[in-house]
Amino acid sequence: MSTLRLILADQLSHDLASLKDCELDNDWLLMVEVREEANYVKHHKKKIAFLFSAMRHFANELTGKGHQLVYTKYDGKDNKGSLFGEVKRLCEQKNIDKIILTHPGEYRVLVEMQSWQEKLNIAVEIRQDDRFLASLEEFASWAQGRKQLRMEFFYREMRKAWHFLMDGDKPVGDKWNFDSANRKALPKEMSPPQPTKFETDAITQEVLELVAKEFDDHFGQLENFHFAVTREQALVVLDEFISQRLVNFGDYQDAMVQGQPWMYHSHISFYLNCGLLTPKEVIEQAENAYRNGDAPLNAVEGFIRQVLGWREYVRGLYWLKMPDYKNENFLEATRSLPKFFWDANTKMNCLHQCIKETSENAYAHHIQRLMILGNFALLAGLHPDEVNEWYLIVYADAYEWVEMPNVTGMILFADGGLLASKPYAASGSYINKMSNYCKSCHYKVKDKNGSQACPFNYLYWDFLDRNKEKLGNNPRLGMPYRTLNKMTDEKRQIIQRDSQIFLQTLDTYEKV
Ligand code: FAD
Ligand code: DLZ
Ligand code: SF4
């Protein structure tokens, strides 16, 4: 009798919970490329290529360590097309009396796994995913009894619990948060370094050909694939971030520059989320850079907050609130996703640039996802289901546990303020301050109304006006609502008229 241990595409870690206590000669490891997972949303071509290549490399490492492993390729002749189908097939072929799994990253996969014991009549053990720094129980106990689940307070607890960036029981620098120093636009003379790129090897080449053939109708470009596909390569990306970019990460964290999709960000979310890097090692390296005098505190604290704070927090929130979280739509948004989210064919230059780069790279940095794409989705009242699906498709780091709280909670305020204390809504002047997109735009960022005016300008006020009943009492929106209330009726009507014309044109799929 032996044990089957299934390893999912985002579980590529040698010290994975379900690999602990594995008996080399007795147990069977299973990794599968399946139609169900690759098509339940039509993932970006680069995302599929990245995961399949990283899976194949990881499988080779495991067999190199002496494991017995069955690997099902996507175009394998007997591929059953689903996780369950492949697990069942192996159970029938080998003498399996137990299945060991690591907790998956998506609720639908967990529900599926929980049905296997009964369906197969074989014992199934689902182990906690201990690659995260907060267990689901720890998050739930932090959340219990709190009216508001603010990330900032969770993050402080995590700093203390793990003793990251602490001097005794005090935060280094005597402050928990250095965000106020992290909102600079990029000076013209500065040019961020190129991202770390890798040549494709024979394994990746084979996967690229497979993806070109099988996923031709999926979003995004496959050309210029340069992601890391092994832990060794992912460590190089991390090293280069720490030595070349971290120093400027804080200052320019919110900056956007046309033609610079990578900026001073780390580009490690792909690797953290699929298991090639661990959050602990990433945080330790960043802290060491500060302690060695190689990076300033605002950069290091800002970076650690993303990984130790936001990343752990959104995971805890997702599992605490699922499955209801999926149906949240506090602002009752109903509009369909505009076609330009797929083809970048819009006269709004900020959106055009961010969608084009997303298509090319399966990546956009945080402030593009939040303040350009997300801000537009919020102001235009796009339906949470469609926005969630789009974000899950287009980014190579997207799994529901991290994508959904960022979309439903952070950008759409669809959870009514569970995650964010106010909607991240902004007019064109914010975008103009933090980027150079407006300089080459068809629309005029300084114009507030009329056919030439930046649509973000009137949509911003129209959004507040439309949602006054639900947002008017939010203490953090006091200022804009006071300004709105002081506007003349005529001004408000002009805002409404411009917004209606714009949104109706959007609905007809005409170019805006
Ligand atoms: P950096 O800017 O260098 O940040 C360092 C790390 O911090 C990231 O690698 C990531 O692991 C973590 N991090 C930063 N912000 C967040 C956050 N808000 N939530 C969780 N982790 C965070 N991140 C994903 O990993 N997958 C997603 O599907 C995803 N969808 C998003 C959707 C929206 C609408 C928004 C606003 C943000 C989303 N993010 C997502 C968070 C963030 O944008 C990405 O983690 C980041 O852009 C990845 O690039 P980077 O590795 O260069 O990050
Ligand atoms: C995203 C994805 C894709 C594209 N393909 C596979 C696959 O073929 N096999 C697999 O095990 N996982 C895949 N995944 C990831 C899953 O859909 C799912 O998001 C995570 O495993 C949840 O933890
Ligand atoms: Fe975007 Fe408005 Fe600036 Fe154009 S003018 S780039 S639409 S913010």
From TrEMBL:
<dbReference type="InterPro" id="IPR007357">
    <property type="entry name" value="PhrB-like"/>
</dbReference>
<dbReference type="Pfam" id="PF04244">
    <property type="entry name" value="DPRP"/>
</dbReference>
<dbReference type="GO" id="GO:0016829">
    <property type="term" value="F:lyase activity"/>
</dbReference>
<dbReference type="InterPro" id="IPR052551">
    <property type="entry name" value="UV-DNA_repair_photolyase"/>
</dbReference>
<keyword id="KW-0456">Lyase</keyword>
<dbReference type="InterPro" id="IPR014729">
    <property type="entry name" value="Rossmann-like_a/b/a_fold"/>
</dbReference>
<protein>
    <submittedName>
        <fullName>Deoxyribodipyrimidine photolyase-related protein</fullName>
    </submittedName>
</protein>
<dbReference type="InterPro" id="IPR036134">
    <property type="entry name" value="Crypto/Photolyase_FAD-like_sf"/>
</dbReference>
